[in-house]
Amino acid sequence: ILNYDIMARFRRRTCIILLLFILFICSIMMALKTLRPDRAGFGDPFGLGLLPELQQRTVLLDNKQNSLDRIQGDTATRVSNLHGIAVNTMKASVPPVNKLEEELSSPNYNFHIFYYSWFGNPQFDGKYIHWNHPLLPHWDPKIANNYPKGRHNPPEDIGSNFYPELGSYSSKDPSVIEAHMKQMRSASTGVIVLSWYPPGMADENGEPTDDLVPVILDYAHKYNLKVTFHIEPYKDRDDRSMYHNVKYIIDKYGGHPAFYRHKTSTGRFLPMFYVYDSYVTIPEIWANLLTVSGSQTIRNTPYDALFIALLVEERHKHDIHRSGFDGMYTYFATNGFSYGSSHHNWASLKAFCDSNNLMFIPSVGPGYIDTSIRPWNNHNTRNRVNGKYYETAFSAALLVRPEIISITSFNEWHEGTQIEKAIPKRTGQVVYLDYKPHKPNVYLELTQKWSEKYRKEQEQWLM
């Protein structure tokens, strides 16, 4: 009887311990489940941290689908769909509607991104344009003789060290333009700085592109993006021709809802023009256009605007101020290449601008490599370091608290500064660089991350 009683107590004790253990395990599992973020399945933009193989977030869904999903109610926010783009065979999984709206509803109009519409292919242009870029010779014949000559032969051999996911596309292809707008919007940029030549004019390797501006404006408006103009150094650019061309742009495109106007400290909304290689023209000529007393003054007229000059050398800051410009930008994505593009000089440039009522717009980029078109220019290559170079540039820009940050670039493929999606590719003897171990959209992800970080820090600056 005693042995039976002992065994019964032992069994009861064992059952109680087992039950408590099961309850403990269940509690742990519930606690871990509550710690899991709601959006973990789609990747947290702040959790990117240059970790490979994070799932891509995507914004490839049109506005009509957004409205439909909202009507379907809260349950739709937990559903994933597939939505194809009609460019090559790109496909992406669609995040929940609340995440989608978070990405698509708030472009950052203080993030300006340089965009080039000069690419062409036989399907849309009758020939390749810019993808077949020539190899540029070094100015010293002795050095030039040591490097190859000729030009690239698309579609397998293009004038870039990287290869675009969209292939050797045409900038006229509507599906390409739309894909670009989606990518720029997914990156939380807000203003497209469009490379521009006057009607009938182009760079020496391209064709006129002004006729494409209305289409770009329309697609930009669809994605709630704005467009401003990056005026290139066209032939005979001076005060008179600039007045004429600014008037042309504002008269022709100023009424479009996607045309960018910047709110000034005085409450005015003015167009903005970036002026590339502005230092080529002497300050006295610019002053004719940009100062109130100038002979060709545009000030206090219906065509007044904010004009942003390119600063390369330190002395240019005084020329820019004397010329009547409203601000300066640095463009180049090569830290150390010029005074303006060197991150450690940004604080002093910002201080100069603040004391002279000028805007300072630092330009950040993901890296630089142009040896596909300048094979002798290895010394200016800046390795992307799996995204760390880009993040370092953003960090340096935020330190000086700029009103606007510009990004070099969305698609300057010749100079390897693009954040557009790129893919691994090997053709014959050509092995293209890529974004591995990350996915093709990693630089869009990083831009979106820093756009949000900039927004939050800017709120603190204004307090």
TrEMBL record:
A GO term from the CC aspect: Golgi membrane
Superkingdom to which the source organism belongs: Eukaryota
GO molecular function: glycoprotein endo-alpha-1,2-mannosidase activity
Membrane-spanning segments: none
Subcellular localization: Golgi apparatus membrane
Keywords: Golgi apparatus, Hydrolase, Membrane, Signal-anchor, Transmembrane, Transmembrane helix
Bilayer topology term: Single-pass type II membrane protein
Pfam families linked: Glyco_hydro_99
Keyword Lipid metabolism: no
Catalytic reaction annotation: N-{alpha-Glc-(1->3)-alpha-Man-(1->2)-alpha-Man-(1->2)-alpha-Man-(1->3)-[alpha-Man-(1->2)-alpha-Man-(1->3)-[alpha-Man-(1->2)-alpha-Man-(1->6)]-alpha-Man-(1->6)]-beta-Man-(1->4)-beta-GlcNAc-(1->4)-beta-GlcNAc}-L-asparaginyl-[protein] + H2O = alpha-D-glucosyl-(1->3)-D-mannopyranose + N(4)-{alpha-D-Man-(1->2)-alpha-D-Man-(1->3)-[alpha-D-Man-(1->2)-alpha-D-Man-(1->3)-[alpha-D-Man-(1->2)-alpha-D-Man-(1->6)]-alpha-D-Man-(1->6)]-beta-D-Man-(1->4)-beta-D-GlaNAc-(1->4)-beta-D-GlcNAc}-L-asparaginyl-[protein] (N-glucan mannose isomer 8A1,2,3B1,2)
Enzyme class: hydrolase
EC number: 3.2.1.130
Name of the protein this chain belongs to: Glycoprotein endo-alpha-1,2-mannosidase
